[in-house]
Design brief:
By secondary structure, this protein is mostly helical. It has a single domain, classed as Proton glutamate symport protein, CATH 1.10.3860. It has 18 helices and 2 strands.
Length: about 475
């Protein structure tokens, strides 16, 4: 059997196990409601949180090592700046279109009409950030603190500046480069071990969420529990949930697919590579949970590692397409539920506000809800009460948002790589190569002199890993 065929069968088997974990989690979560089976609920919660914690342990070391190595090996500082400008331009265009789609769907389907909005309800949320706070958020101050908090954007900025500095040291920086090469190789092996636990993590996340919904809620003075509670909750919010899922589907069909056609990106191959990480993001309602796998799959697709490790993490703060679309959809839903229709001028003003406030806040828990509450308050809408209203099904909607966020960031890496003339989609099923190996290789060239390009078709440097 060829390596490509074996890799394809392995990926297919992994996706099947993840899907099985998802289905089993839904079934057992419904049969073991949180209030009746607290120990089962805590077990489901443990599986989910333990898996996501393991994933978070990967993100900072793998990002820092791959970004530093990619920039140091390239040695072309202009290309780094060029990638940054192109990435930001692409992010801004796509997220603006996503806001427009959310605006149209909210006005056509009107998901807020008839929804129960209790004006006396208040929800504890972090304070929304100002424009200067958002800009300051990108500046690294304490790498250990950012790593501990899972704050990706300042970590990316630090690693980029560190890589640039390393290129200017010359031969004296060779031991540092060798160290980060070794860290990157080890972290990709470590990622492979953790990813074997993905089906368990997906099972725990789904069972945990469904068990919580099945614990019961009051309907007309009567408390319903179990499957009827899950069904009633989803039915009550079906228009809102359906509107978001429809809008996200339109985003994929009307924006992502045309972008792939324009950038000459093989559509079926792209979705085949993004399938497993997207399913992980959907099941766990966390796009971060699939970040290491997405980096691996995009490199196997043909995106150079230095491009993927720069564009994708930056996109986690600036290119959250699904979450951006949800901002305007949820806000107009709150306005409709409150009986305060907004004029077209007000809606456009809100859209512009979201364009500015939705960037760089990925480190804030429930960042989307924070932005919604703050922006609604600025337009005279009951933001906190509205957030409390949609909070019941926010997890269900967050699943779809996370999958689309991840897909959009994978696509952004492909587009920037094509823009740079470095996308190679000819090696279907190819396993991603590790960073430049040092064991058994000739004496490597110092990073400042004759830097080799990080191209998919460059000569082999060590064994390939999957």
């Amino acid at each position: 059997m060829s390596a490509a065929g074996a890799g394809g069968e392995k990926a297919h088997a992994g996706t099947g196990l993840i899907f099985a974990g998802l289905v089993l989690g839904v079934i057992l979560g419904g049969f073991f409601p949180q209030d009746q089976h607290p120990q089962a609920f805590l077990f489901f919660q443990f599986l989910s949180k333990a898996f996501i914690a393991l994933i978070k342990s990967i993100i900072v070391p793998i990002l820092v090592s791959t970004i530093v190595v990619g920039i140091a090996q390239t040695g072309d500082l202009k290309s780094v700046g060029r990638m940054g400008v192109k990435s930001i331009a692409y992010f801004e265009i796509v997220t603006t279109i996503a806001l427009g789609i959310g605006l149209v769907v909210a006005n056509v389907l009107k998901p807020g009409e008839g929804m129960p909005l209790k004006l006396d309800v208040h929800t504890e949320l972090a304070k929304p950030k100002s424009g200067w706070d958002i800009a300051l958020h990108a500046v690294p101050s304490n790498l250990i603190k950012h790593a501990a908090e899972g704050d990706i954007l300042p970590v990316v900025v630090f690693a980029t500046l560190f890589g640039v500095a390393l290129t200017q040291v010359g031969p004296r920086g060779k031991p540092v480069l060798t160290f980060f090469e070794g860290v990157a190789q080890v972290m990709f092996k470590y990622t492979g071990l953790v990813m074997k636990l993905t089906p368990l993590g997906v099972f725990g996340a789904m069972a945990y969420n469904v068990s919580h919904m099945a614990a019961g809620h009051e309907v007309g003075g009567v408390v319903i529990k179990g499957w009827p509670a899950v069904g009633h909750l989803l039915k009550s919010y079906s228009v809102l949930v359906g509107s978001l899922y429809l809008a996200l589907a339109l985003l994929v069909v009307l924006v992502f697919v045309p972008v792939m056609l324009i950038a000459r990106i093989p559509i079926l191959r792209f979705f085949s590579h993004v399938r497993t990480p997207a399913l992980t993001a959907f099941s766990t309602a966390s796009s971060e949970a699939a970040l290491p796998k997405l980096l691996e799959e995009m490199e196997a697709f043909g995106v150079p590692r230095r491009v993927a490790s720069f564009v994708i993490p930056a996109g986690y703060s600036f290119n959250l397409d699904g979450s951006t679309l949800y901002l305007v959809l949820a806000s107009l839903t709150i306005a409709q539920a409150a009986g305060k229709p907004m004029t077209i001028g007000q809606q456009i003003a809100m859209l512009v506000t979201f364009m500015l406030t939705s960037k760089g806040v990925a480190g804030v828990p429930r960042a989307t809800l924070v932005i919604i509450a703050g922006t609604c308050a600025g337009f005279g809408l009951p933001g906190e009460a509205g957030v409390a209203m949609i909070l019941a099904v926010d997890e269900v909607m967050d699943m779809a948002r996370s999958a689309v966020n991840l897909t959009g960031n994978g696509l952004a890496a492909c587009v920037v790589a094509r823009w740079e003339g470095e996308l190679d989609t000819s090696g279907a099923g190819r396993a991603p190569k590790p960073p430049l190996a040092t064991t058994g290789d000739p004496e490597p060239t110092p990073p400042a002199a004759q830097p080799p390009p990080d191209e998919p078709e460059s000569g082999p440097r060590g064994k390939e890993t999957s």
